[in-house]
């Protein structure tokens, strides 16, 4: 007997129903009851899809974020949102999204405005959670109502329910202390509430509880390791069986600790930590269940079921009834159902599995283990065919691409001369003033632009009509930029739906789903393109647009590209070769685009690497090897140009301390970064390192509709000049302007250009 279970199911809905319901409610176009009703329906639907499992997750559904749900369960709300007297779900949205006192939303006037909770990435995924806040005054208080309600619903549907909660140590570790309180000092108090919660569930007759402790796959110091022992020795007395779930990586140093916690079971990610499973068999106490996460919960590929069984059968032999099978992690990180993809190429579709299909795979594995492979021989045979065709497909494997990769040399990533030599040649060519001004690439994506694109995609606007519409937008943005007096112009990215999808659509080796949405945060979803094959660039992707833009102005026009690391990190990528290989392939393709732009007379080229930091592995020990190939990929992309061509890169985040050496190794002539909200303090890292090239520290926050003040921007640049010599500073916003309105952008940039003029006059 093998027990099958699931760690979590995507909650956004196969057609993003939850997104649309939430947004309608937030806009005042629907009611709270409608939102709650949809939540109920989605849970029912998702449990029905999981009906074949021995245990289905309950409590994994959240209206906004599962970590925020946990904060509500533990009664840990920031002081600023307490005393709200409306519906609890309204307060929940208030914590998640913030609310202005002027807004028309419920209770805004009586209960006031609040700042949104801080959001950060959930481990190494693209999912963002609301960070729990702690202070010395933090007092936890159980509110099990949400979980109990979902449990009752599940039971009414005859679901074999396994409540899912975040474990106490992970909960503390992923939160933030707002004063000097140590998070661990809160543990004893927190454990009382966890005890109460588990006892409440026991009283409901719950047998198993999944308690997620993914922090076990990161480096833990002795205090945090000790916290695990403390916590689980205390929770041991509760009358439920605990399955401690780890995922996303290897346990490494924490393996012994995890194996020996006094709980009934342990879940391990057998995709990322496969090599740890067999050693764990010897380490686990004889009564413990081992849940093996054999189906990849982070990608969209079919599992090689036959190979998995080859590996699993001896393990099943040893574990007997103590073997559980599951996906590697919650399926939150994959789209819901491949059956919706009727437009996808049939062969490529035959290689894929979304959440629903992954659960089918789990079932096949379990049946094969309990009844023998013969019981599922047709399914195994068709899986074998899919895996074999993918492995040998000429659409995946391109000899020319592989040959080009074999020929990579360090010279390919090397500029002709060092920055100092390049800088003087570029200065002579571009003739820019001190404190040159520029923008990060995109201008507002107006309703007209979106309309033209959807008409074009629907076939109601022909290619010539679409091109004319986009050219008109480009011309408009150039007129505005000239009127503003900016120094280095951009074309405005009107023709781009998305900075990754736009390139993916034009590269060979990419496929696109229609409904492959994955939750990023709250109601926001992304639809990562699917990198399935060796990458090549059949034709130039941006040159015509940029050339057209340059033809309208005598000012330098900045060519605009997305870099290989960012394209990689925002795609579903291949599991049949290392990420680094896919990245190098992308690098060679974008390099050709860079060279074509240069050939077309474009002297400034920006290569965005917004997601470079996101790709950092969970454990610091592995950072350098990632950074090595990521930086080398950028260098291959960028550095084939002549000295006179100025390479820019852009990164929109604000932590450079620990990766500054790699940022410098990219050797871009100019880097623009997000700094406005940090008072330029993050430039300290550049100063300490003696960063040698030019920097454009963002002087205004593009996320806010507020018009930045000229004097404030002057002040920020003066702070910047204390850290970086003025000759190497640029003046620009934090990021692209596509989400803003022209009515906000124009006055903001007018003030920014005026600020640059003031700085020049004072210099
Ligand atoms: N060039 C892109 C833009 O301006 C950069 C966006 C980003 O860094 N996220 O929109
Ligand atoms: Zn940015």
TrEMBL record:
<dbReference type="Pfam" id="PF08267">
    <property type="entry name" value="Meth_synt_1"/>
</dbReference>
<feature type="binding site">
    <location>
        <position position="674"/>
    </location>
    <ligand>
        <name>Zn(2+)</name>
    </ligand>
</feature>
<keyword id="KW-0486">Methionine biosynthesis</keyword>
<feature type="binding site">
    <location>
        <position position="570"/>
    </location>
    <ligand>
        <name>5-methyltetrahydropteroyltri-L-glutamate</name>
    </ligand>
</feature>
<feature type="binding site">
    <location>
        <position position="493"/>
    </location>
    <ligand>
        <name>L-methionine</name>
    </ligand>
</feature>
<feature type="binding site">
    <location>
        <position position="735"/>
    </location>
    <ligand>
        <name>Zn(2+)</name>
    </ligand>
</feature>
<feature type="binding site">
    <location>
        <position position="650"/>
    </location>
    <ligand>
        <name>Zn(2+)</name>
    </ligand>
</feature>
<keyword id="KW-0028">Amino-acid biosynthesis</keyword>
<keyword id="KW-0677">Repeat</keyword>
<keyword id="KW-0489">Methyltransferase</keyword>
<feature type="binding site">
    <location>
        <position position="121"/>
    </location>
    <ligand>
        <name>5-methyltetrahydropteroyltri-L-glutamate</name>
    </ligand>
</feature>
<dbReference type="GO" id="GO:0003871">
    <property type="term" value="F:5-methyltetrahydropteroyltriglutamate-homocysteine S-methyltransferase activity"/>
</dbReference>
<dbReference type="InterPro" id="IPR002629">
    <property type="entry name" value="Met_Synth_C/arc"/>
</dbReference>
<feature type="domain" description="Cobalamin-independent methionine synthase MetE C-terminal/archaeal">
    <location>
        <begin position="436"/>
        <end position="757"/>
    </location>
</feature>
<keyword id="KW-0479">Metal-binding</keyword>
<feature type="binding site">
    <location>
        <position position="608"/>
    </location>
    <ligand>
        <name>L-methionine</name>
    </ligand>
</feature>
<dbReference type="InterPro" id="IPR013215">
    <property type="entry name" value="Cbl-indep_Met_Synth_N"/>
</dbReference>
<feature type="binding site">
    <location>
        <position position="614"/>
    </location>
    <ligand>
        <name>5-methyltetrahydropteroyltri-L-glutamate</name>
    </ligand>
</feature>
<feature type="binding site">
    <location>
        <position position="608"/>
    </location>
    <ligand>
        <name>L-homocysteine</name>
    </ligand>
</feature>
<feature type="binding site">
    <location>
        <begin position="16"/>
        <end position="19"/>
    </location>
    <ligand>
        <name>5-methyltetrahydropteroyltri-L-glutamate</name>
    </ligand>
</feature>
<keyword id="KW-0862">Zinc</keyword>
<feature type="domain" description="Cobalamin-independent methionine synthase MetE N-terminal">
    <location>
        <begin position="4"/>
        <end position="318"/>
    </location>
</feature>
<dbReference type="InterPro" id="IPR038071">
    <property type="entry name" value="UROD/MetE-like_sf"/>
</dbReference>
<feature type="binding site">
    <location>
        <begin position="440"/>
        <end position="442"/>
    </location>
    <ligand>
        <name>L-methionine</name>
    </ligand>
</feature>
<dbReference type="InterPro" id="IPR006276">
    <property type="entry name" value="Cobalamin-indep_Met_synthase"/>
</dbReference>
<comment type="similarity">
    <text>Belongs to the vitamin-B12 independent methionine synthase family.</text>
</comment>
<dbReference type="Pfam" id="PF01717">
    <property type="entry name" value="Meth_synt_2"/>
</dbReference>
<dbReference type="GO" id="GO:0032259">
    <property type="term" value="P:methylation"/>
</dbReference>
<feature type="binding site">
    <location>
        <begin position="524"/>
        <end position="525"/>
    </location>
    <ligand>
        <name>5-methyltetrahydropteroyltri-L-glutamate</name>
    </ligand>
</feature>
<protein>
    <recommendedName>
        <fullName>5-methyltetrahydropteroyltriglutamate--homocysteine methyltransferase</fullName>
        <ecNumber>2.1.1.14</ecNumber>
    </recommendedName>
</protein>
<comment type="pathway">
    <text>Amino-acid biosynthesis; L-methionine biosynthesis via de novo pathway; L-methionine from L-homocysteine (MetE route): step 1/1.</text>
</comment>
<feature type="binding site">
    <location>
        <position position="652"/>
    </location>
    <ligand>
        <name>Zn(2+)</name>
    </ligand>
</feature>
<feature type="binding site">
    <location>
        <position position="493"/>
    </location>
    <ligand>
        <name>L-homocysteine</name>
    </ligand>
</feature>
<comment type="function">
    <text>Catalyzes the transfer of a methyl group from 5-methyltetrahydrofolate to homocysteine resulting in methionine formation.</text>
</comment>
<feature type="binding site">
    <location>
        <begin position="440"/>
        <end position="442"/>
    </location>
    <ligand>
        <name>L-homocysteine</name>
    </ligand>
</feature>
<keyword id="KW-0808">Transferase</keyword>
<feature type="active site" description="Proton donor">
    <location>
        <position position="703"/>
    </location>
</feature>
